[in-house]
């Protein structure tokens, strides 16, 4: 298996490289030194990830000559908040971090977003090294420079753009990832496929058993295909003024579902899966997207183990949560709707009635059964 390297050149920041390989963590010290040499580095992670990987990473960094300042916080989205950022500032400043010190984000998207925000703001900005340990972080959150934390009024409402200096994605660490987290990462992979790459959709559908048993070469290819998509999109539009908005497919519904669930009930990827189902059905109702493709999407999400309907759905609460979405543009919510498998477009004219109708189909009690398993769809797998 060979190491894969993909360059991300946003033009607004120095070009950086995404390295994808197995057992990268064992060599992380010299790799970081090459990307961001300094006497001291700040290592940010959560307690789960620390239990598995902190000792090895710390040792490799020390051997590469770093003094390591650490900040470890409890796992979970509910700690992705300003109070945790403040604790990180305290710990890292007490450990005498310097202006050249890289901040290493070792963990999933929560660690990446929070540590990235710390890196963007501490001492007016420090180099950031993303070391994603979840599939979601490897294919999505670690690339593109969006960093930030949640507010009680909504997800990711406080943040910045801060591109990493380098990204090191180790396929081997996905072996310890809980199954539900693997499923959530796959939700973002399916998102990339639907908005941009039908061949990726087929790849996931064809290789799902190997992906779910975490076959390293298959995961390597899956991550590389996704990183290429994310890298291409953020290169084209680093500040989300155009095409990057397509990455929000499933997220306008998804974020609202997540907010209503209080950042606990639904994992991010699960909410995105539901959001993609709702957006696809909305697109079908507008005759933009073939019902058979919406069926294929739903079947693939189900095979992955992601939810495609929700019990006790409070539609009014979800609608209200959507009103605080920071993607509101001149008073209107913009929706990303698929127009083909592999292509999506931005729509600013979606009505409240359409949103309600799409949400209503997510209610498990009323959801269209996968009677979508027509003979035709079964042939699709
Ligand atoms: N910045 C972006 O562009 C961007 C894009 C997508 C998502 N996000 C953000 O990412 C977050 C979700 O990220 P996530 O799904 O990675 O969640 P997460 O960071 O909460 O990680 C999920 C769980 O897995 C554990 N874990 C991580 N790696 C592990 C490993 N290798 N082995 C065992 N356990 C491990 C974590 O401790 C945590 O409990 C959300 O906050 C979302 O907003 C950001
Ligand atoms: Zn997402």
How would you sum up this structure, described in words?
- This protein has helices at 28-35, 47-63, 82-94, 109-121, 135-141, 179-196, 198-212, 216-236, 251-260, 268-285, 291-304, 315-322, 352-360, 375-380; strands at 4-8, 16-21, 40-46, 67-73, 103-107, 128-132, 146-151, 154-161, 166-170, 335-340, 343-347.
- It has a seven-stranded mixed β-sheet with strand order 1-2-9-6-5-3-4, sandwiched between helices. Strands 7-8 form a two-stranded antiparallel ribbon. It has a two-stranded antiparallel sheet with strand order 10-11.
- Residues 371-381 have low confidence and may be disordered.
- It is globular.
- The protein folds into two domains: 4-177, Rossmann fold; 180-380, Dehydroquinate synthase-like - alpha domain (Dehydroquinate synthase-like, alpha domain, Up-down Bundle), CATH 1.20.1090.10.
- It is built from 14 helices and eleven strands.
- With 381 residues, the chain is α/β, with parallel strands linked by helices.
- Bound molecules: nicotinamide-adenine-dinucleotide and zinc ion.
- Zinc ion binds next to α10.
Structural class: alpha/beta
- Helical residue percent band: 40-55%
* Extended strand count: 11
Task: Using the 3D structure, state the CATH architecture of the largest domain.
Answer: Up-down Bundle
Q: What global shape is seen?
A: globular
pLDDT < 50 runs, ≥5 residues: 371-381
Mean pLDDT score: 92
How much of the residues is beta strand, in percent?
Answer: 15-25%
Discrete helix count? 14
**Strand adjacency order, main sheet:** 1-2-9-6-5-3-4
CATH top level assignment of the largest domain: Mainly Alpha
Order of helices and strands: EEHEHEHEHEHEEEHHHHHHHEEHH
Identify the bound ligands.
nicotinamide-adenine-dinucleotide, zinc ion
Number of domains: 2
